[in-house]
Amino acid sequence: MVLPTTLSCGVRTFLDVGRTRRRDRLADSPRPQYTGKEIAADPAQLICALITAGGKVAAMTVIRTITLDANNPYELGKFWEAVLGWPMDPEGAPGDGEVLLQAPEGVPDLLLIEVPEPKTAKSRMHLDLQPEISRDEELTRVLELGAKVIEDHRKADGAGWVWCADPEGNAFCVLRSAAERAKQEAAS
Questions:
Q1: pTM for the full model?
Q2: How many helices (H) and strands (E) does the chain have?
Q3: pLDDT in tens, 69-85
Q4: Between vectors from CA 23 to CA 17 and to CA 24, what angle results, nearest 5°?
Q5: What is the pLDDT of residues 143-173, one digit of tens each?
Q6: SS3 of residue 156 by DSSP
Q7: N or C: which terminal CB in the chain sees fewer CB atoms within 10 Å?
Q8: For the chain, which domains are there?
Q9: DSSP letter string over 58-116?
């Protein structure tokens, strides 16, 4: 049986539980056994547990790197390094044609590649950022780092997001934090 799911990093994948029981595939692993309730409770948690325990996850493809065009990869890399807290590859230097930000394990890296032309049209893809702090605190922080607000989609009830652009115009949205989402869901 194949179960579709989305990992916490946003990658759409499929859990292939085949005809054997997960318990059988995990038998040689020193990690805890799973009962199957995890699928209903949190599919991403189960997939991550299966991956680390040597289980098999069928995916059509894996996103290894998210690439952004940039006129100045190093300077834009400094912005994203400050926003995400991901370290820039130590070999990156001003004037380099590409700069890599190293993401945490299991999350695609961010690669900035130099292009001669400026951004001229709306991107068809963007990043959604879910901060640890409140959405409004994160918005203040990214604006201080050089982002600009494009459209504000915040609602009176606390839902919504803010569409922003980085210093070179690449789109991203600042969402509510997990704590803000949970608080609103509990109040509903």
A1: 0.68
A2: 6, 9
A3: 999 999 999 999 999 99
A4: 85
A5: 999 999 999 999 998 999 999 999 999 999 9
A6: coil
A7: C
A8: 2-52 (no CATH), 64-118 (3.30.720.120), 120-188 (3.10.180.10)
A9: B-S----EEEEEESSHHHHHHHHHHHH-PPBPTT--TT-SEEEE-PPTTS-EEEEEE-S
